Amino acid sequence: MKVKIFTECGKDIGLGHISRCTSLYDEAESRGLNVEFVIYGEKKNISLLNNKNVTYVNWFDKNILYKSISKSDYVIVDSYKADLEVYETISQISKRALYIDDFGRLNYPEGIIVNPSLDASHIDYSQSQNSILLSGPEYVILRQPFKGVKRDYIEKNIRNALIVMGGTDTRNLLSSITTEICPKYPDINFKLIVGATSNDVKGIFDNDVNNVKIYNNLTGDEVKQIMLGTDFAITAAGQTIYELIATCTPFIPIQVIDNQKFTVSALLNNNIVHKVLNWESDNLFEQIIEEIEFLKEEEYRISLSNKYSNLIDGKGVQRIMDELMG
């Protein structure tokens, strides 16, 4: 019996799949199960995959699936690229299959669908009739360091800020935000986390802005400590927002890809943020400045932090694995 996690990574995909799948990998391993990552994409030095059993292969090929999966295998799939035929094959040849989905991408075959977001009520899964659906904040996937985290206090004045645009910085925003925003706030120390597959690494490191410190290849614990030492964050509206919520860190989200629209809706509907920005906006930098000005108010940051504190209990990974192995 083995747990196999099929996913993908690359410059046009990001590391969100890898990040949340490592949490499922660690949970399965903690239960004494044999676990393997099967990844479609270019092999990269990704710290998230350190000490993991990883195979890089084009698993979209049915012939490779038949060679990779046995009838005793439990399979997890997290993909924006695999087509329905691939999912049907996995469902047929595995012991049990679980599909992570963010926006109702397919009518999934028999198995378990997990939508690990704050609110999936607006997504129609009715056509996936033979599947079990798990959704809502109780199934949000967090990495181990972000479970049970407590923020001690909220600073009266903003002194430290975080800028993070996911594993790839798909829209090359880190460099431009650094240039356009950070010099306007010389009293704030900005910390930039650069993803392992960021597109414009050279441009980011070449920026000569005095109040900016750049970090890369960080562990989950290191990211957590930076967040806890941060008064607010500017972030892409992807997987990182759940870690910011877990650390009760107020944030300014920017939608950078279309499939984040449901995450954006959940943030707004639950009054978790004041506003969600869009990377295509003509006045993006002016909007970021407006949001920073909102966040300067201590009481506002305290109210946001209090809202975050009870949203995610950190047990989503255990619940998902219980269902898969049940």
Class computed from helices, strands and strand pairing: alpha/beta
In helices, the fraction of residues equals 25-40%
Question: How can the largest sheet be summarized?
Answer: 7 strands, parallel
- CATH 2nd-level architecture of the largest domain: 3-Layer(aba) Sandwich
Q: What is the fold named in CATH at topology level of the largest domain? A: Rossmann fold
Q: Please write the string of helix (H) and strand (E) elements.
A: EHEEHEHEEEEHEHEHEHEHEHHH
Tell me, briefly, the overall form: globular
- CATH homologous superfamily grouping of the largest domain: Glycogen Phosphorylase B
Question: Which regions contain 5 or more consecutive residues with pLDDT less than 50?
Answer: none
CATH class of the largest domain: Alpha Beta
Number of strands: 13
Radius of gyration: 20 Å
* Integer average pLDDT: 91
Ends distance = 14 Å
Protein name: UDP-2,4-diacetamido-2,4, 6-trideoxy-beta-L-altropyranose hydrolase
Organism: Soehngenia longivitae
Structure overview:
- This is UDP-2,4-diacetamido-2,4, 6-trideoxy-beta-L-altropyranose hydrolase.
- It comes from Soehngenia longivitae.
- α1 packs across α11 (316-325).
- It contains eleven helices and 13 strands.
- It has helices spanning 16-30, 62-68, 84-93, 173-180, 201-206, 220-228, 240-246, 261-269, 284-295, 298-308, 316-325; strands at 2-8, 34-40, 54-56, 73-78, 96-100, 111-115, 131-135, 160-164, 189-194, 212-216, 232-236, 251-255, 277-278.
- β11 (232-236), α7 and β12 form a beta-alpha-beta unit.
- The strands form two sheets. It has a seven-stranded parallel sheet with strand order 3-2-1-4-5-6-7, sandwiched between helices.
- It has two domains: 2-143 and 314-325, Rossmann fold, CATH 3.40.50; 146-308, 3-Layer(aba) Sandwich (Rossmann fold), CATH 3.40.50.
- With 326 residues, the chain is of the alpha/beta class.
